[in-house]
Write a structure and sequence with these properties.
The complex is a heterodimer of chains A (110) and B (112). Chain A contains no helices and eleven strands. Chain A is mainly beta and 110 residues long. Chain A starts with a strand and ends with a strand. Chain B has 112 residues and is an all-beta fold. Chain B is 0% helix and 50% strand. Chain B is built from no helices and eleven strands. In chain B, strands 2, 4, 5, 6, 9, 10 and 11 form a seven-stranded mixed sheet that branches. Chain B has a four-stranded antiparallel sheet with strand order 1-3-8-7, with no helix packed on it. Chain B is globular. The mean pLDDT of chain B is 93. The chains are: A mainly beta (110), B mainly beta (112). Chains A and B meet through strand 4, strand 5 and strand 10 of A and strand 4, strand 5 and strand 10 of B.
Chain lengths: 110, 112
């Protein structure tokens, strides 16, 4: 059973068209939820950590939020340079184990 | 501060050969993780190590794959007798205690 599910798999936006990416998880005892950005041919780049429901983090055009069962990555007025795959990961309970979703591939057209 | 360093970036092996992938964690990081990624897919956990100890290897195939993180030197992921299905990108990540993972840029293994 997948612990982390991301949707949509792919998203095409026009420059300036805001949207949200979803990450739902089923692990019990969430220790932390993490968002990463991955560019082709590169390793994932850390963006945010969220620890508890109601928490929000922002960085430039990105804002991450967390509820008890899911997280959203909101992208406001995206630019073509925001095109990348966005990965969500969760860390469970007392374990130093991180489960990753399959990612959302974002393409922002100028 | 150097990030997580992986080498080689690209590795080509013939079927039956051995592949050795190296990972130097960020300074001060004592936890190392190895992940495998196929094209258009997510990261699949393989193994989690601390210095001189394998903590969790539940994601690693029982045969042909091994990993180590010695007291001195980089972490090594070793694949013996490679097969075509081993072709993938292998990513290493490191962290200090209770912190997010920081990734290297991966080793792309091609088995011919």
């Amino acid at each position: 059973e997948d612990q982390v599910t991301q949707s949509p798999e792919a998203l095409r936006l026009q420059e300036g068209e805001s949207s949200s990416l979803n990450c739902s998880y089923t692990v019990s005892g969430l220790r932390g939820l993490f968002w990463y950005r991955q560019d082709p041919g590169k390793g994932p780049e850390f963006l945010f950590t969220l620890y508890s429901a109601g928490e929000e983090k922002e960085k430039e055009r990105l804002k991450a939020t967390l509820t008890k069962k899911e997280s959203f990555l909101h992208i406001t007025a995206p630019k073509p340079e925001d095109s990348a795959t966005y990965l969500c990961a969760v860390q469970e309970g007392n374990f130093n184990k991180f489960y990753f979703g399959s990612g959302t591939k974002l393409n922002v057209k100028p | 501060n150097a990030g997580v360093m992986q080498n080689p970036r690209h590795l080509v092996r013939r079927r039956g050969q051995e592949a050795r992938l190296r990972c130097s964690p960020m300074k001060g990081h004592s936890h190392v993780y190895w992940y495998r990624q196929l094209p258009e897919e997510g990261l699949k956990f393989m193994v989690y190590l601390q210095k001189e100890n394998i903590i969790d290897e539940s994601g690693m195939p029982k045969e042909r794959f091994s990993a180590e993180f010695p007291k001195e030197g980089p972490s090594i992921l070793r694949i013996q007798q490679v097969v075509r299905g081993d072709s993938a990108a292998y990513f290493c990540a490191s962290s200090p205690e209770n912190s997010p993972l920081h990734f290297g840029n991966g080793t792309r293994l091609t088995v011919t």
